[in-house]
Amino acid sequence: MADYKMLINGELVDAKETFDVVNPATGKTFAKSPHCDASDVDAAVAAAKAAFPAWRDTPIEERKACLKKAIDLIGANKDALAELLCKEQGKPKATGAKGEVNATIAAMTRVLNVDAAPLVHMDRPEAKVEVCRKPLGVVAGIGPWNFPLLCLFQKLAPAVVLGNTFVGKPSPFTPLSTLVMTALIKDCFPKGVINMIVSDDSKFRSGAQLTSHPDIRKVSFTGSVPTGQAIMKACSPDSKRVTLEMGGNDAAIVCKDVDVKKAAAGVFGGAFANTGQICVAVKRAYVHSSIYDEFVKELVANAEATKFGDGMEKGTTHGPLNNKMQFDKVSEFVEDARKSGAKIETGGKAMDRDGYFYEPTIISGVKEGVRIVDEEQFGPALPVIAYDDVEDALERTNNTKFGLGGSVWSSDIEAANKLAARVESGTVWVNEHLGSKGRCTECP
């Protein structure tokens, strides 16, 4: 097995222990990851803290030059990174994994255009007032397992270009591609500017120590709602700045005037990209009763046209769920819907093969009060709910504790835009979902 190392103070270091990393397409261990302890966390934070004054005082154009070197190195190693990402995350190498590596490069490249010049608030003969944006210090970034490279490195890039130093922690389900990418770019920055640790959270929760550490000035997190809530609580005693991007239960409202075939393909793409493991994926679809049966039929056709398989295999369109925990959750949600009287139009069970594969599942005859409608399934199962009045669909869409994303589908763009403006979500698309007609390019 390859030897994977953490990065602390410019040096690639081993941990005292390791833990297994499982290939979700086989359900078997294929590599070992270092497992940090409390002393490693403290060392990484101390290195970042020590590096901060000099890095803060480095001109921004020099900091950008360091990032540009890193981007070039990542670009030169895209294929190897995509293969490792495929093996630990499950997404198809040719599409999802390569797509994520490219999206990571694109996100980092955009940071090269950041302008941090002071904003002149007032300029008079007797006084001048400027708003100056200053680096905070040591920033902690904690990434998820669904888009491990994109989500973590789009935290790292702006943090360091704007003069902060960085300590990152990938998910224990997908640590390896992050460790390899960090090792690739370590010499692009002065020692201590970037650091990367990882732990098996079932043994030691390094993220908890990191987020409560007194020398961390800001925490940026992408992941589940319960973990985000725990991070906010951990950051409150010393009022750390916090950015949390957590779960969603995005609704698609499908109006009766759509082209059913096209809209169904778009909704399906928005729901099943990355095997449904996207925070802003379509998690529930409200479809007008006059086209409901036809729409469900088209969703089923889309589901049955997919090829779920090992992401290293040619022609695979969708990979497995990333881990046993998520596989069990999706299975439980579908069973709960079945027991409630819902109809499983297609799928509804584990695939007969090794790994964490679950059949693409379309569920009809379901409504609120069932877990797969009320909660976030984060997997390849879509509940389809009929409605008669669009005002009712809107009310049901907004009746949730989530508010991440949503979409409206209609041939009347003006009416769709007006309806979209009333959807209580941070992002609302019209006639697409995930920003690219149902294809995920940069969505976490």
Key phrases:
seven-stranded mixed beta sheet
Short structural description:
This protein has 444 residues and is an alpha/beta fold. It is 39% helix and 21% strand.
Task: Summarize the helices and strands and which ones pair or pack.
Layout: E1 6-8, E2 11-13, E3 17-23, E4 28-35, H1 38-56, H2 60-76, H3 78-89, H4 93-111, E5 119-124, E6 127-131, E7 138-142, H5 148-161, E8 165-169, H6 176-185, E9 194-196, H7 206-212, E10 216-222, H8 225-235, E11 241-245, E12 250-254, H9 260-272, E13 282-288, H10 292-304, H11 324-339, E14 343-346, E15 361-364, H12 371-374, E16 381-387, H13 390-398, E17 405-409, H14 413-420, E18 427-430
Parallel strand pairs: 7-8, 7-10, 8-9, 10-11, 12-13, 12-17, 13-16, 15-16, 17-18
Antiparallel strand pairs: 1-2, 3-4, 5-6, 14-15
The pLDDT mean sits at: 96
Strand content: 15-25%
Number of helices: 14
Distance between the termini: 30 Å
Task: Report on this structure.
With 444 residues, the chain is an alpha/beta fold. The chain has 14 helices and 18 strands. Helix 5 links the parallel strand 7 (138-142) and strand 8 (165-169). The longest helix has 19 residues, at 38-56. 52% of the residues are buried.
